[in-house]
Design brief:
The complex is a heterodimer. Chain A is an alpha+beta fold. Chain A has helices spanning 94-99, 119-125, 134-142, 161-168, 199-214, 227-237, 248-262, 306-321, 327-330, 395-410; strands at 3-6, 16-22, 29-30, 35-40, 45-49, 54-59, 66-68, 72-77, 217-225, 268-271, 274-277, 283-289, 292-298, 335-339, 358-372, 375-389. Chain B has two domains: 2-183, 3-Layer(aba) Sandwich (Rossmann fold), CATH 3.40.50.970; 196-322, Rossmann fold (3-Layer(aba) Sandwich), CATH 3.40.50. Chain B has helices at residues 6-20, 44-48, 60-72, 91-97, 101-104, 134-138, 151-163, 211-225, 244-253, 268-279, 302-308, 312-322, and strands spanning 2-5, 24-28, 53-55, 76-81, 114-119, 144-146, 168-173, 180-183, 196-199, 204-208, 230-234, 237-239, 256-263, 289-293. Classes of the chains: A alpha+beta, B alpha/beta.
Chain lengths: 417, 324
């Protein structure tokens, strides 16, 4: 019996998704759990796994189509099986396209190539995975040859040893260094240029405008003494492998989570005539990604040890930067942290990420002259500003939250018990 | 060097070791008065008498169990199983007792036991008497599994097996007793656990053993007509498995097939291919292909039986597939 596969709902507020790429084609075998397609939602590009196994009988939508949640996108069944005639052969996706006439999806860079001088770079960055044997890959890696430039002669166009060796021996294949500088242009061409927004950029635009115009923000700043955290971090990291070292942000996530337990109004959602205080503390961390930012969510951070938080954040940030986040990575945050500390930032103010009630903007931890007991000394200081929804909480409560945060950051041993 | 049959080579090995060491004796079904089902022990009964060439009842667990006891008591028994399929009747002794007694008793006992068993299909003996379950036995640590493909190796390996203090399953192929090959004059031993390049080549590695060696040699001759120079590595011992010559060859050719007579699933080929992927991944230039028996109980009907067993054209086709 053929099974219809629908556009999945990958987030609670997802209404539609763009089918960026079909990974499988009609006639190919697919197992349950194999990646069927890549879908771009408001937040990320996500791989969609097939809920059924068999042969792809029909792909109902085209690459680039915007498809409403739950609309049929493909049919999987047994080879030779007839596709149910009742199914629409093409979903009506034009309507949603009409609503956004100026929008081009990232995958369709061809149509804007005349206005974007570096479109070549864009398309090469997006070239599908190169098929090459492990040996070919190794030789290419050792000799700094770009496999994408080679024409594979193995089955299905696989690049094999002799293809790389042909390139090495300087025959017709061009040797392009893996990081081409040839596309570099001096910034003197200054024609106006229309750059289409990605779905992610559109989502950021919509949500931030909505937040800043409908949520009454107020702000409280605090300067934290970071000497104890810096000392503890140095002490702990001396015993951890490079890829597991704790960051300052890991301490902040933990400290914020514990402080939120004491201030449930800041771990909440405004809901008209009532307030929804969330039972779990799930701290989102804003991550800069190509073309925007994502908030990766770490669940129950008030209960997890620092190392676990650190490992979770690292994994999710890596996936976010690779464009491979899972729906679970970006759903369900109850409070967010935006940390620009690595960019040498004194202080800044963030916009609340709805439906949350507050967000903490964190600057750089720096060694500065400080006055203690009437003497000038060198100390670690870090400024942070919390933005709070005034419908939910008031200045005094926010200030006390910032003091509670100081308690944990200035006595970090409290985070261990 | 003399060119003798596999049967003669095995017979010589047994006789030389029985002459050399009075602790060596043979027990099994029809090994004595009848001279062995495959005539390997013809004349032994008259030469060594009923004490050293014992005919047993048709009870494989008694044959192997009794041999284990004799081995623990200081003898060097050679238990013969008419076919390896009968080893299933003695499975507890073969895989659960013999390989583990030395370990379980903290080294107090040795089990210098050789189980000679005849395996393989192709003689229309039906599904239950034609199997090649070598991988089943090679799965168990403690049991060495040897399966030669040439008379020279059969003689040298069997002599070493008889002198070894470990339990060894020595698998002979039912259709190979007439195979002739050169055997060195005089006394020689071949170490267990050493694979060997049986044919040098540069384009492709064929990993095989026992009957697969005979087929692969013929396939290599076919391939040579098309200008393909195949190298053949004969495992000779399945446990302990010596991957060195395989990996050395593969690092040169970057392409391989594995030929075995047993079923493909969970087989010798699966093990060899995994080991290549694990230990020489960066040398892989094409997926490695396994040539093996079709996944069915081996049919009695001759045409179907031959269709289910791996054949020379299958090996040639697989070789060309990985060289595509």
């Amino acid at each position: 019996m053929a099974e219809t596969i629908n556009m999945p709902k990958l987030g609670f507020d997802m209404a539609e998704g763009t089918l960026v790429r079909w990974v499988k084609q009609v006639g190919e075998n697919i197992n349950k759990g194999d990646v069927l397609a890549e879908i771009e939602t408001d937040k990320a590009t996500i791989e969609v796994e097939s809920p059924a196994g068999g042969v792809i009988l029909q792909l109902i939508v085209n690459q680039g189509d915007i498809v409403p949640v739950n609309a049929a996108i493909a049919v999987v069944g047994q080879a030779g099986e007839k596709v149910d005639a009742a199914l629409p052969s093409k979903v009506e996706s034009q309507k949603s396209v009409d609503e956004k006439p100026a929008v081009q999806t990232q995958g369709k860079s061809d149509s804007v190539s005349s206005t974007v001088p570096s479109s070549q770079t864009i398309s090469s960055l997006q070239s599908p995975e190169i098929k090459a044997s492990p040996l070919a890959k190794k030789i290419a890696r050792d000799n700094n040859i770009n496999l994408a430039q080679l024409q594979g002669t193995g089955p299905g166009g696989r690049v094999v040893r002799k293809d790389v060796e042909a390139a090495l021996s300087g025959s017709t294949q061009s040797q392009v260094p893996s990081r081409p500088f040839t596309n570099y242009q001096l910034p003197i061409s200054v024609e106006d240029m229309t750059v289409p927004l990605t779905k992610l950029r559109q989502a950021i635009a919509r949500r931030m405008a909505e937040s800043k115009t409908t949520v009454p923000h107020f702000y409280v700043s605090h300067e934290y003494k970071m000497d104890a955290v810096m000392a503890m971090r140095k002490q702990v990291n001396a015993y951890l492998p490079d890829d597991q070292k704790l960051s300052v942000n890991d301490f902040i996530v933990k400290a914020v989570s514990l402080a939120l337990r004491e201030f449930p109004n800041l771990n909440a959602t405004f809901a008209g005539d009532k307030l929804l205080r969330h039972g779990a503390v799930n701290v989102g961390v804003a991550v800069a990604v190509t073309g925007g930012l994502l908030t990766v969510v770490n669940k129950n951070t008030d209960q997890l040890p620092l190392r676990q938080i650190s490992a979770d954040v690292k994994q999710k940030v890596a996936r976010a930067r690779d464009g491979k986040v899972k729906p679970d990575d970006i759903e369900g945050s109850t409070f967010s942290i935006s940390n620009l500390g690595m960019y040498d930032v004194e202080n800044f103010i963030a916009i609340i990420n709805p439906p949350e009630a507050a967000i903490l903007a964190v600057g750089s931890a720096k060694e500065v002259p400080v006055v203690e007991n009437g003497e000038i000394k060198v100390g670690w200081r870090m400024k942070a500003t919390v933005s709070v929804d005034h419908r939910v909480s008031d200045g005094a409560e926010a200030a006390q939250f910032m003091q509670s945060l100081a308690k944990y950051l200035e006595t970090p041993a409290l985070m261990l018990v | 060097m003399a060119k003798i049959t596999m049967r003669e080579a095995i017979s010589q090995a047994l006789m030389e070791e029985m002459d050399r060491d009075p602790a060596v004796f043979i027990m099994g079904e029809e090994v004595g008065v009848w001279g062995g089902t495959y005539a390997v022990t013809k004349g032994f009964y008259d030469k060594y008498g009923p004490d050293r060439v014992k005919d047993t009842p048709i009870a494989e667990n008694a044959i192997v169990g009794g041999a284990i006891g004799a081995a623990m008591a200081g003898k060097r028994p050679i238990a013969e199983l008419m076919t390896i399929n009968f080893a299933f009747s003695a499975m507890d002794y073969v895989v659960n007792q013999a390989p583990k007694l030395h370990y379980m008793f903290g080294g107090q006992f040795k089990v210098p036991l050789v189980i000679r068993a005849v395996g393989g299909g192709g003689r229309q003996l039906g599904a239950t008497h034609s199997q090649t379950p070598d991988a089943v036995f090679a799965h168990f640590p403690g049991l060495k599994v040897v399966s030669p493909g040439t008379p020279e190796d059969a003689k040298g390996l069997l002599k070493t097996a008889i002198r070894s203090d470990d339990p060894i399953l020595f698998i002979e192929h039912a259709t190979m007793y007439q195979v002739r090959g050169e055997v060195p004059e005089g006394e020689y031993l071949i170490p267990i656990g050493k694979s060997k390049v049986q044919r040098a080549g540069k384009d492709l590695t064929i990993v095989t053993y026992c009957k697969g060696l005979e087929l692969s040699m013929k396939a290599a001759d076919e391939l040579a007509k098309d200008g393909i120079d195949a190298e053949i590595v004969d495992l000779r011992t399945l446990r302990p498995l010596d991957m060195e010559p395989v990996l050395e060859s593969f690092k040169k050719t970057n392409r391989a097939i594995v030929v075995e007579e047993g079923w493909k699933s969970y087989g010798v080929g699966s093990e060899v291919v995994s080991r290549i992927y694990e230990e020489a991944f960066d040398y892989v230039d094409a997926p490695i292909v396994r040539v093996a028996q079709k996944e069915v109980p081996l049919p009695y009907n001759r045409t179907l039986e031959q269709a289910a067993l791996p054949q020379v054209p299958d090996i040639v086709a697989a070789a060309k597939e990985v060289l595509r």
